[in-house]
Predict the structure.
Amino acid sequence: MDSLQVRQNTPSTVPQHTPYAPTTASLGGVPSVKVDVPITSVFLLLFLLGAIAHMTIFQLNRRKGHKFLMSAMTFGFCFSRCVTMTLRIAWATRPKNVSLAIAAQIFVAAGVVLLFIINVIFAQRIVRAAHPHSGWHPIFNAFFAAIYVVIVLSLIMTITATIQSFYTLNANTRRIDHDIQLYSQTYYVFIGFLPFLLVVGGLVVPRETRVEKFGSGRFRTKVAILVFSSLLICLGASFRAGINYKPARPSDDPAGYQSKACFYIFDFTVEIIVVWLYFILRVDNRFFVPDGSRKAGDYSRRDGEGLEKEGVAATRIMSEEEVFDDAPDEPSMKEQGRKDEERA
């Protein structure tokens, strides 16, 4: 979330009409044509290409019956970032337009939520594969459902508080708005770090069964991808939350940690790395699970197989070699038929 400090405006320092321009410094400051437009244009291109790449993967997979909604969610994130960059460019050309400033800051704050949700879903799948009995427990399912609901509610609260802070001069109201923003930013730090905690905890806690294989690629690679992306996202969220706990500074005297370099590094650079990491390492294959998975054993179903009947155990336990993809691939039916002919 962007650093949106409480704006200690007074009637003598701001125009007497709404929305009121901020008088305190924020992360990145007011964009300029000379500095921000070239940088923002590069990020606009990168996120646009990311949106095209992930939507292409989603459509190709959909035609094959390979349903992976996280590709569509990543496309949605990239699209929201394209809107963010467009708004910042427009704001740079009209620096005194407070309405553009509000819209740009809201989109900066809102977009990253989709990446949080994607990583939490990946973590949920890893935990279910490592600990199927506890991972599919109703309490565990309710925990994740509550996480998603609070994420959405926190986003709504943040957007409301941000808009309200531009339309009031009441000090107490601004304090409340700032507290809401601090809460949301702190909560998103927790959500950003949550996948790391879940995965590490799942690996440390002794397992009752072997890991259930899902998707393609080694299980350890899935863990590494999730840990790396989670730490990157958490780094950005922690930085944004941390500077918002610092005392507000005048807009003409920002702190070093509020510089444009910090803004672009901890906001958009870490995000674009994660976006292209998802694409290059093909998380749509690695984290894929069969549609309709509802219980232990469903992750290891082969495509085209029906769900097991209720009450019938579906526990295809993989060997350690199979779990980490160290076992040789099984020969295809065509290759097996050719070998049979050669033997005959």
The longest helix spans residues 171-204. Confidence is low (pLDDT under 50) at residues 1-14, 304-335. DSSP finds twelve helices and no strands in the chain. The radius of gyration is 24 Å.
